[in-house]
Amino acid sequence: MRSLKTILLVGLAGVLALALSACGSSSSTSSSSGSGGAGSGVAAGVLTPATESLTGGRKGGTLTVLNHEDFEHIDPGQSYFSIDYEAMYATQRPLYAYKPNTFSEVTPDMAEGPPQISNGGKLVTIKIRKGVHFSPPVNREVTSADVAYAIERAANPNVANPYYLGYFSAVEGMPKASGGPVAGITTPDKSTIVFKLTGPSGQIVADALVLPISAAVPPEYAKKYDAKKPSEYGNYQVATGPYMFKADGSGKVLGTGYQPGKSATLVRNPNWVASTDYRPAYLDEIDMKIGGDTEVIGRQVLEGSHIVQNDTPAQAIVKLAYEKYRKQLQIAPGAGDHYVAVNNSYGPFKNVNLRKAFWAALDREAMDKARGGSLVTNVMTHFLYPATPGFDEAGGLTGPKVDYNEHPQGDITVGEKYMKLAGYPSGKFTGSQTVQIVGSNGNPAPQDAEIANQALKSLGFKTKLNLVDQSVMYSKYCGVVSEKIDVCPNVGWLADFGDGQAVLDVPFNGKLIVKNGTNSNWGLVNHEKINNAMAAAEKVVGTQARSAAWAKIDEELVGEAVAVPYDWDKQPAIEAKDVVGVGDQWNVGSWDFNYTSLK
After folding, report:
1. Which CATH number fits domain 337-569: 3.40.50.12780, 3.10.105.10, 3.50.50.60, 3.40.50.2000?
2. Helix and strand totals (H; E) in the chain
3. Rounded distance between C-alpha atoms, residue 21 and residue 158, angstroms
4. What is the distance between the alpha carbons of residues 388 and 3, in angstroms, rounded to a whole number?
5. How far is C-alpha 53 from the chain's CA centre?
6. Among 5, 158, 167, 245, which is disulfide-ready with 253 (CB 3.0 to 4.6 Å)?
7. pTM for the structure as a whole
8. At a CB cut-off of 8 Å and minimum separation 6, what does 172 contact?
9. In which element (H, E) is residue 353 found?
10. What integer pLDDT is reported at residue 96 of this predicted model?
11. Whole-angstrom distance, CA of residue 93 vs CA of residue 110
């Protein structure tokens, strides 16, 4: 799906050894992921999203949420980060959504029922739910035209949605759209929206409607903000969900309900009607405090009241939680992946053999141990997730049989072989360039970044490592094409839905590189053969055929060594003793404010 919040797991090998033995986890046991399921490796007494109760919570109260990280975007047309989604799915209603305990069963949200796909997959028709109203100051009922505008504005350069071309390029007129009406999106009446496609891509278009891009936006209110560069709609957004960002009388959120780097406040949407929504929305208010040391935050949560940590706990805190507060610890299997992005378009790593050399030399086992070993991660050997269609065809857990992938502990001999093939007879890099590495400063990401740094140095590269806040890493460096960063060791991805396209398309399709906005193809991967294969695979119909097509693309990505994969994640989260936290299986275990309640 989107770039992950800081999925930074912990070195708990000694503490968790008995638990691993008890639950039968091993390096050959995979967690579930893209298409859902409970997964494995969750120790006894630890919470997991797949088994949590979605009913019976106590209504009322204020939940305090502590974040080390800030939001990246709070505009539903721009949001593509897990931490953003926590607020988006509490305040907005896309056409479809997932309940917390699944990543495979879609629930109609703003839609009245399932999408109707016809004309050989070239027509998608959806009925809009009646009785849903925008929050103040708009206050009117939502219509299909609001959903149409929400999707059309994604193409506005001022909005710069990072994934619309990945999933909606088959909609007639969308590839050339710039924010105005799109010929292939029509609204024959106030409660119907129709997508007319140029090819049989109806299923992918329908699947993508779980994303915030389909959350209604009122054009008469939003257009003046979308005319700004960049769009300011996020600062004045209105809600359709049970909650809204606290705002002043004009609808302004910025400075009232959201102070970047400091705080955010979600309050009840007075226009929300419970009978139109499947969410229980137990809480009255969610108060978020942004910033601070993750270890200090963690202790406040474990020892506090009516409080949760929203991003990844520090190493010491997960250890403490497992030992003394196990009923306050949740681990979510299938929580995405991490890989080292290397710049395929600029700098030394344009050379495929240098990319293979780096892959071979990197100690991926050490990187995974820094995250907690097999309880909380599996060594990643290719790019499709376990349980995603095509995973087994692409190589399963062991991955494709190529020599640079065979030794996850790192193999300098194989690395030097590829250095020689790249034109460096000594097996060491002798060029003049200094490799620019940008990573996250939230523990234990620096350990992973340093392991990558040392692997590069072992191959003779001169390096410069810069560690910054996770959101800054994406928004100012790794996600900005013009920065031309050579290596980003802490990037990660979570599929939007259980299909190979949702895993591979946005981060590795050169046609989807966003030059003016936050780009999610961090390695600037742009290989014509792969781009063309993806274009063909997008049109393939049927689960088995699509699985085979995207598995083949996975193999090609490994063959080009477009990035260095190192872990399939499981994500920890912590809560206070008097919180009944409900985590989202589909959103890396993030707390779901629509279902979480207080004791």
Report:
1. 3.10.105.10
2. 16, 22
3. 52
4. 18
5. 24
6. 245
7. 0.76
8. 182, 183, 184, 196, 197, 198
9. helix 352-361
10. 97
11. 6
CA 222, 223, 225, 230 torsion-angle sign = positive
| CB contact at 8 A, 399 and 28 | no
In the structure, what pLDDT confidence band is assigned to residue 42 with cuts at 50, 70 and 90?
low
Look up the CATH superfamily of 72-226.
Periplasmic binding protein-like II (3.40.190.10)
Q: Nearest 5°: CA angle at 382, between 381 and 384?
A: 130
Give how far Cα 92 sits from Cα of 97, 107, 212, 481, Å. 11, 14, 7, 30
Q: φ and ψ at 552, to 5 degrees?
A: -65, -40
CA distances from 511 to 162, 165, 166, 423, 486 (A): 11, 9, 9, 30, 20
* CATH 3.40.190.10, domain 39-63+259-334+572-598, yes or no: yes
**Mean pLDDT value of segment 293-316:** 93
Confidence class for position 21, pLDDT limits 50, 70, 90: very low
Q: Centre a 10 Å sphere on the Cβ of residue 155 and count the other Cβ atoms it contains.
A: 22
Q: Give the three-class secondary structure for 425.
A: coil
Reported as type and span, the H/E element at residue 322 is: helix 315-324
Ordered by start, the domain boundaries in the chain are 39-63+259-334+572-598, 72-226, 337-569
Quote the CA–CA distance of 283 and 58 in Å, as a whole number.
8
CB 332 within 8 A of CB 581: no
Q: Across-strand partners of 465?
A: 437
